[in-house]
Structures are given as C-alpha cells and as structure tokens.
Amino acid sequence: MKKLAFLAGIVTLLFSLQALAAYEDYNKRYGEYRFNKLPEKAAVSKTVWVGQWWSYKKDGVAARFNGSYAVKDYEPITDEAKLKYMSPVEKLDKYLGRYDKIDFAALKGYLDKKKTVESDVDQWIEERRGLVYKLNRLIEEKQNDPSFKWQDTEEGKKYVDLGKKIEEKQAELGKIELTVDTAYEWEVINHGNGQFGVQYWWGHCNAWAAAACVEPEAAKEATLKGVPFNPGDAKGLLTESWMECNSSFFGSRNEQHDDAEAREKIDYNDVTPAAFHIFFADQVGNRDKSFVIDEFTGQEVWNQPVKAYWAKCEPQYEIGQDGKAVAEKVDVTLTNYGSW
After folding, report:
1. In a domain, 214, yes or no
2. What integer pLDDT is reported at residue 159 of this predicted model?
C-alpha cells in the first residue's frame, strides 16, 4: 500500500509539473514571464505623439481640418492664400501636380446621389451585421453535420437577399462618371462619406496609433513646391500610410456577449491578467517598445498607442467588515486625440 501511495504521489507530482509547464509555455508567447524580471513601471523613450483619428464621417484625411469654416467642402481651392486650408491629401495632390485632376463636381454629384439611397442601404447593412452573429453560432453548432448549409437557413437566405438588394442600390451609383485618380478622391470614396454603413466611431485610430509608435513626430512646418505643410498635415499623411499595415494580435475581438453562452467564449475571456501584465512589462519595460491597444471592450474599436505603465503589488483581496472581498480601483491613463 505504501508503494502504491508513493507511486500515486509521483504521478500527482508529474501531472502538477506538466500543468505548470503548460502554463509557462502559454505565457511565453507574451514575452519574459518571470515576475522578478518584469519592471514595476516603465515608459518608452520614443515620443508617442498625439494625432487625430480622422473620422470617416468627416472624410478621413481628406477633411479640411485646417480651415473647415474658411472654405466649402467639395469645392476647389484656387486662391494661393488659402492653400493652407487644404486637407492633407489635397496638399499631397497639389505637391504632385495633380490637383487639377480632382473632379469636384462629379465627386459632389456622386455623394449627393448616394444620399438618396443611403438610408435604405445603411439599414440593410445593419441587418446583415446582426445576422452574422446568428449565422456564426449556427455554423459552430452544425460543424459536424456535412449536410448543413448556412445558405439554406432562414437567416442565411435573408443574409443573401439583403446582399443582393445592397448591390443593386450601389450599382445605381456606378452610372455616375467619376474617375478616381487622385489621393483626395480616393480618400473620400474609400475612407470617407463615399462609404455605406459607416458607424460614428469608424476612423483611422488604428493607423494613427501605429504611426505614433513607429514614426518620428512631425514638429515643424515646411513649404514644398509652394505648398504649405504643417505638422498636422504630415501626421495625417503618415497615419494614412499605416492604414493597412500588417499586425500581430494578442487577444480577440469580442462583439457579442449578451448571454451566458457567449461569455464562455475565448474571445470574451482573453487577454488573461497574467498575459496583460507580462506583455506591458516586457514590451515597454524590457524592450523599450510601444504597441497599440484597443481600449474598448465591445463592438467599437478605439485604438491607442502605449507610452507608459505602472503596476502595484497589493494583497489579493481586501476584506470588508462584512467579511466579503472589496473590489480594487484601478486608474488608467489614456492618450487624448488632437490635431498636432
């Protein structure tokens, strides 16, 4: 019996060691995981600069933020004294000698036509977004059923039908002749009011955050080929250049967590507290590198670049007079958006 008990103890110890090794291997993906090797506080040496998030509702980097009240939108600026009021991408077009190619009249006609169908199309797009979650759950539930086809479900048929209706309405806009061969036109159509289904929070925060982490801060004005560029213009163009950059993600988006089943999913439970601390402390404290976070936990995405962090070791729980644990308060400081 003693031998059996001894063997059972060895087996238990082996399983415990395996579990510990698995835990350590999991956390290794985030960097140095030994607690005594993780600085309690740190800040990156690079200037993580303030910038705009360039809202789609305001035409992204095509927004005339330098003088929105001095000039009208979608009209050419020909007065040399008012070049400073151009948007960053207009200034780029002017610098490259293609400002005269911007067809403001055709662009305005396109946007005016879009407004006539926008209400219906935006509503259909929202309906499709709601169906995506339901379809994903159905696909997950039926993943072992080879005969299952999501297109044959009631939700699938509605999803396909809405797609056809959206395409038909969008096709009507194609009848307007608009040649997109300038940075300004491209930005308005792709990252601005030319898009359907735009939500108020859509913008370039992901690109600004990436650029702020990597690029040096623009701090001076410069005039190139007669075109005045201020720091805000330079930051806008840098932001646009990082809009489609490749990224490595830790953690998952979580857009639906209204029921208990959804809250059991991995994308609701990540990133773990250990992983959170390890990544901040190793990247900022050990490697002197900034990175981008999504500081919103729901469907919206609000990206911010990280400048610094601090951590404080406290007892795991504070016990109140009633014998119950009292929640700890944590202060978080975020970067504010601005022009320059």
Report:
1. yes
2. 96
Q: Which long-range contacts (CB under 8 A, 24 or more apart) does 4-7 make?
A: none
Residues of the domain holding 285: 31-53+204-254+270-340
Total structural domains within the chain = 3
* pLDDT over threshold 90, residue 48: yes
Closest CA to 161 of 116, 124, 198, 130: 124
Q: Are residues 192 and 66 in the same domain?
A: yes
Spatial separation of the C-alpha atoms in residues 11 and 7, rounded to whole Å:
6
334 within 8 A of 295, measured Cβ to Cβ: yes
DSSP-based three-state secondary structure for 308: strand
Distances in Å between the Cα of 19 and the Cα atoms of 48, 173, 329 are 39, 59, 32
Q: Are 51 and 235 in contact (CB under 8 A)?
A: yes
Quickly list DSSP for 84-143. GGS-HHHHHHHHTT-GGG--HHHHHHHHHHHHHHHHHHHHHHHHHHHHHHHHHHHHHHTT
Give the residue from 162, 187, 202 where a domain finishes.
Answer: 202
Tokens 């080879």: give the residue.
146
Of the two residues 338 and 128, the one the predictor is more confident about is 128
DSSP sequence for 163-181: HHHHHHHHHHHTTS-----
Give yes or no: residues 214 and 318 share one domain: yes
pLDDT tens string 284-296? 999 999 999 998 8
pTM of this prediction? 0.81
Position 198 scores a pLDDT of 94
> Residue with structure tokens 């936990």?
297
> pLDDT class for 158, splitting at 50, 70, 90?
very high
